[in-house]
Design brief:
The chain is an all-alpha fold. The protein has a single domain, classed as MetI-like (MetI-like fold, Orthogonal Bundle). About 80% of the residues lie in helices and about 0% in strands. The chain is built from nine helices and no strands. α5 packs across α7 and α8 runs antiparallel to α9.
Length: about 220
C-alpha cells in the first residue's frame, strides 16, 4: 500500500474550508427545523383531528423516504414545477429543515407526552388557556427532557449534510472530491475529509455527554 500525503498536504486547507459550509448547513437547518418540528409536535398532540392527520402524514413522508431523494426532488423539481431557479444553498437548507423538522417533531412529541398530565389538568382548572399552558409549562419541561436527543439530531444532520456535495455544495466532501480528481489520489483526501467529520462529531458528542450530566444533576 502506497500513500502519498505529500501531494495532498497543500490542499488540506482548501478541504478544511468546507467545515464552515458544513456547519452553516447544519446550524441553520437545525435552528429552523427545531421551530418547524415544534409546530408539527403541537399539531400531533392537539385535539383537532385534521391537524393530527396532516402532521402524521408529513412526518411519515419525510421519515419514510431517503434524504438524498428529497434533496434531489427539491433541487430539480422546484425549477421544473415553478420556474424558480433555486440555489444550492436554498435547496440544501429547505431539504434539511423539512427533514429535520419531522424527526424533531417526534422528539418533542415524546417529551410532551413524558410531562405529567396532572400539570395540564391543574393548569386548566386554574383557568389558564391551553396555548399558555403549552408555551409556559409543558414545552419548557419537554425540551429540557429531550435536549440530549436534539444534540443527537444535530450529529445526524451534520453527517447527512455531506449529501449537499451531490448537487455541488462546496462542503468538506465536495472539496475532498475536487482535490481527489485534480491529484488523481482518492484515498488520502477522503481520509482527511473523514477525519474532519469525525472531529466535528466528537465535539458534538462530548457536548451531549456534558449536557446529559448537567441535566442529571439539576
Amino acid at each position: 500500500m502506497f500513500l502519498d500525503f505529500e501531494r495532498i498536504w497543500p490542499s488540506v486547507p482548501y478541504i478544511l474550508q468546507g467545515v464552515q459550509v458544513t456547519l452553516a448547513y447544519t446550524s441553520v437547518s437545525l435552528f429552523l427545523g427545531f421551530f418547524w418540528g415544534t409546530f408539527l409536535a403541537l399539531f400531533k398532540v392537539s385535539h383537532t383531528k385534521p391537524l393530527v392527520w396532516v402532521a402524521g402524514f408529513y412526518t411519515s413522508i419525510f421519515r419514510g423516504t431517503p434524504l438524498l431523494l428529497q434533496l434531489m426532488l427539491i433541487y430539480h423539481a422546484i425549477p421544473q414545477l415553478t420556474g424558480y431557479n433555486i440555489s444550492i444553498w436554498e435547496a440544501g437548507i429547505l431539504t434539511f429543515t423539512l427533514n429535520s423538522g419531522a424527526y424533531v417533531a417526534e422528539h418533542i412529541r415524546g417529551g410532551i407526552n413524558a410531562v405529567d398530565k396532572g400539570q395540564m389538568e391543574a393548569a386548566l382548572s386554574l383557568g389558564i388557556s391551553y396555548p399558555f399552558i403549552m408555551k409556559d409549562i409543558i414545552l419548557p419541561q419537554a425540551i429540557r427532557t429531550i435536549l440530549p436527543s436534539l444534540v443527537n439530531e444535530a450529529i445526524d444532520l451534520l453527517k447527512e449534510s455531506a449529501l449537499i456535495s451531490v448537487i455541488g455544495g462546496a462542503d468538506i466532501l465536495w472539496r475532498a472530491q475536487i482535490v481527489a480528481s485534480e491529484k488523481y489520489l482518492y484515498f488520502e483526501p477522503l481520509l482527511i475529509a473523514g477525519a474532519a467529520y469525525y472531529v466535528l462529531v466528537m465535539i458534538l458528542t462530548i457536548a451531549a455527554r456534558i449536557l446529559e450530566k448537567k441535566l442529571k444533576t439539576t
